[in-house]
Each structure stands twice: as C-alpha cells, then as structure tokens.
Design brief:
By secondary structure, the protein is an alpha/beta fold. The protein has 21 helices and 21 strands. β2 (14-17) and β3 (22-25) form a beta hairpin. α14 packs antiparallel against α21 (637-649), α15 (423-432) packs antiparallel against α20 (625-632) and α17 (496-502) crosses α18 (573-591). It is globular, with a radius of gyration of 24 Å. The chain starts with a strand and ends in a 13-residue tail after the last helix. 51% of the residues are buried. This is Carboxylesterase type B domain-containing protein. Residues 372-382 have a biased composition (Basic residues). InterPro entries: AB_hydrolase_fold (IPR029058), CarbesteraseB (IPR002018).
Amino acid sequence: MVTKPASPVDVQPIICHDLLHTTFFGVVHPLSTPEAPVHQFRGVRYASVPARFRQSKLCTSYFPATDATRFGPICPQPSFGGVEELFGSSIAAIPHEDLRQDEFDCLNLNITRPAHAHRESRLPVMIWIHGGGNRGSGSHWLYDGGSFVHRSVQNGKPVILVTINFRLGLLGFASSPALRDDSRNAGDDGVGNYGLRDQRRAMEWINKFIYAFGGDPTNVTLFGEGTGAADILCHLNSSSNESRPLFQRAIVQSATLDCDIPSVSSAGWQLSKLMCSLHAHNVEDMRAIPVDTLVSLALTIRATDDGVFLRKGWKDSLYPEEPDECEARLPRATHRVVNGHLDVPELHALQHSPHHHHRYLRSSSRSPSRSRSPRPRLHPHHESHQPLIIGDCGGESLLWSLPASGWTPSGAVRRIRAICQSLNKSTALLRAYDINPYTPADELPDRILELINDARFAWPTECIAKTARHERGGRMVWRYIFDQESPSRGTPHHAVDLMYLFDNVPLPNLATSTAPPASFELSPEISRPCTPSTPEMVYGSDSSSEDGRASPDYGFGCPPVVDDEWGVPIVDEWSYSRVRDAIQSRWIAFAYGESPWSEDKVYVFGPEGETGERSLSIFEGRRRVRLWKDALEPLGMQVVQKVGMELSNGPPLTTKLGYTGS
C-alpha cells in the first residue's frame, strides 16, 4: 500500500489502496487549515444490495480509479425539512443539499481524516450511526466530520470519523415468515434487520480496509443518536458481537427505543396488512411495487427478533423490568490501584490527564478542593461487553409539543388508565405527574411532556445504564446528562447535543461574554430550575472542577444573559464554546481508550455553560429519579413506553399531526 506524502492543503488527496487495487481521489475539506489539515473521502461504496429485502454483500471490487469527491446516493425516504425547525435556524441559513436517492446503490460511507494520517498512524476510528427513524443519512450536513476531526487535530488527539448510509423504513426492516422463507432460499440466515446488517457490513469494511486511510481497525468506537443510538444497543446485544466484536466501545445518545422488538410473526402480521392495501399477494409482488410507493407510506419500523441477529437474553438488557434489583445483585469490582492506575490483569491501564478547564460550577453544596488522580484506561471482562457512554437531553419530549397539546385532561386520564390496566398503578402514575380531570388546560401540555420525556427517554436510559453496569461487573459505564440550551430555542431539546458535538449548525449572533471571576462565590442554598417545565429540578455540584480547584458558583451578582422579553437564557460565545469543547474532548478521550470521567460520577453538559463531574445526588436532582421508582417501575418498561408512545401520538383526532421522533 502506498500513501502519498502529506500535501499542501490545496492539493487533492489521493489514497492508493493495495488490497482493493484502486486509487481513491478525495477532497480537501473546506475547514482544513495549514495547522490542522483535513481530508474527506465521500461516497465510498462498502456493500451492494442484490435485491429488495435481501442482505447486503461486502464490496471488495472497485475500478482502478475511485471518485470519492462527491457524496453517494442515500436510501429512498419521505421528504422532510424538519432540521431548521428543530434547531430554530432560518431556512436561508441551512446548507443546501440535493442528495440522490437510490434503493440499490445507497450503501456508502464518508471518511473524514487528518491529512497527515498514513498507514502507520493507526488512529482511533469513530463510526457515526445517524438517527431519524425512516429518514436521514450519514451524508447530511449536520453530521459532517470536518469540524470534529479538525478540532481533534488541534487538541493533539487526531481521530478518523466515518459516517455511513444504510437502508431505512420498509426497505431496511421489513420482516415476515414469507420473507424468512425467501431469505433461506437465497442462502441468507435470518430475516429483516437489513439496515442493521448494512451497518455491520460497514463495520466489516472498516475492519478490513480502513488501515489505508490511517485508521486502526482494532480501535473503533460506535456512536449515534436517537434511532441510531437504539441501533447501537442492538449491535451491543447481537449474536455477531458475541462471536466477533468489530468495535471496542460505544456512545449511546438519547436512544429512541420501540415499545418492544417484535417477533417475525408479529412483524409479518403488520406487513400483511400493508400488503393488502397495496394489493400485493407475495414477496415478488412487494419487490415489484415502485419504491416511491413504499416510501410514501412513511412507516417507521426498526428491528425484528428473527432468532438470529440478537443474542439470547437480549431482552434483559434492553427491557429491564426491575433495574434496582439488578443493582442490588451487582458484584462489586475489587481492583488494586497501582500508581494511580487500576490494576486490570487482562489489559494495560493508561494514564489520562484532562486538557480542558472548567472555570465555574453551579452548586448548592461544595466539597473541599482536592487533586485528581490520573484517569485509567479501562477494559471490560468480555470483548462483547464494550465500555459504554450513555445519556439523554433534558427536554427530549419537546419533539411532540404539538400532538401533546391536543390532549384534554379527561382524555389523557382515560387513555393512561386504559394502557396501565391497573387502577392503583395508573392512579400512582397520574398523581406523580399531577394529571387529573381538573388539571388546568394551559398546564396540561407541560405535564404530558414531562411524562413523555421520562417514559420514552430519561427512565429507559437510566435502566439500560444500570443493567449495562451490572453486566460489566459494576464498571465500564459512564453516565451523562445534557441540559445545555439550544442557542436559538433556549431549551435542551432532542438532538441539541449534536449542535455542540459536530459544530455544524449555523448559529445566531451569540452575545460576547467572559467567564465569571475565579473568586466569585454564592451561598450554597441557592439553586435554579433546570427547565421551565421542570421546576423541581435544581442545578448543583458537590464536586471540584477538573483541574482540581474548588469551583465557584454562578448566581447573584453574575446572572445569566436572558432575553428581556421572554426571560429565556441566551447562549453566549463562552458557554457555547465551553460545552462544545467539553463534549468533543470527552468523546475523543473515550475513543482513545481513556476513561472520560470518573465512573462513579455523572458528567453534566449545561445548563448555561456548566460542565463537569457531579455526584449521583446531583443527578437525582436533575432528573425525577424518586418519581420513577414510585410510579414507573411498578408498571414495567414495556407499559411505560407504551404510555409514552400513545401520548406522543396525541389523541385520535390529532394523530395525523404526530411525530415519530428520531
């Protein structure tokens, strides 16, 4: 394999791949600079689709010259323009994209890498799995890796970022007994999950061929958001991951889980209803239907339990019924600490020194200043129990503000009772969220959204985190919460973390601000609400900052900048940069195999620029942990998620206005 030496930033990058017998011609990324040059290879085909509803095949044959200067086709999908609405950006500010859609040529990936990377570099590889349900693509401008890789080079920890395209909706996840028989006749093992298997094919391609781009195939981190994060949970619990892991760690951001992963028979029943409406009588009839017709149905379907893709016992990990019992049975790891490192017999430990500073923390109580010991590099007991970062945003349910506003107090009460099918349990749930037939109409939407938020995101995330920690012997799981506001909307809505992580969303004019003086202090009794809809949540910290100094508070005498008319916190340049740098540096450190923060702490991003480690007691103040135990746990995960799904769809008359989320 021959890689051309580093070139000036205005020279086209070229990779001569010895195994694939092709030369890839890429582009210099627009954000590339002489100090941190970045190259990008776009639309690289990693697999082919032999037929609709068939498993993809790894691509190993290329023409002698491969044009990787343009993004490849994406999976056919319903048209939507929700990004500017979600982030509060003007349509004029959103980058224009016109990505071609092709059912059989959509399996391609984009590689963004430091320009000076070469075969011997063996840089960490990060694979992004996008969310969006039956929509979206890895080529979307929101996920462009240029800014992220550029900053990794500037920080002295360069990484390679790969974004992938895969099949979605019916094309990616249709399943039925008839399709299973068709797959067997074609020599495929398993049915459905074509999109998940596409993702696995991309991992196989990266494992075999990323070395030529300077990546380390044995140091791969999966990360994703929404349904992409849910897909990562499926990969963590897959049979293939048990037998042959192709990634070493994972980051799960705001996972959107289904109420349950259906069996082939259950999925087939749903598909048969669709086939009747399309006058299709067999698999070949379904293959003959124009792709635009299938896409226009806008169905959001995901994984199927076909008895092959998921490992045995996967339900205990994805749908834990009583997480506290798992925690009670948790074996406590007993490892010696040697020179600031955990003495892990099976693998080496690596020292980590934090490289970004935290100027202040908001706290209601304070611990004495103390120095931090170096963070060790940690590894799981088993390769298929990869280290995991997992968390959620503070206002995920704002996605469903419109359908939630359609509920009446009596209608919401009736629906919740019907789903719970238990007078005592439904009464406890309604009382916990203060929903009753007499709830004022102007207060009901906020209470509905709180319940949706906990049922679909916050509580499932915590349950999965606890179960994952139990499976890993009490280690290898790092919990975070993202409460930083959107610069335009002033709330920590769903996917707001992506604004800071990828740093690609056009920003409004941010106010110029400086950090509070280091000597500033505030009474420990002062606290602030986390979001307007959750007054019981309070900020706080009992931790020192990452550089070991006691952290001053932020409050009276140094108030947050707010909109004079609405009182919404405005994100200024300092708080935006602080949170952006924090999430990028933590994710990159994790990709390098370092512990991103202390395992017995929760890392907070925001609000108002706050970042750092916090104790579990602070986490309980930020989320409704006690309420979950009293009202949600008795119902169980599947019932709770069904409540969240039904409420987010809105009452029957407004179902057509509902959102599927991402």
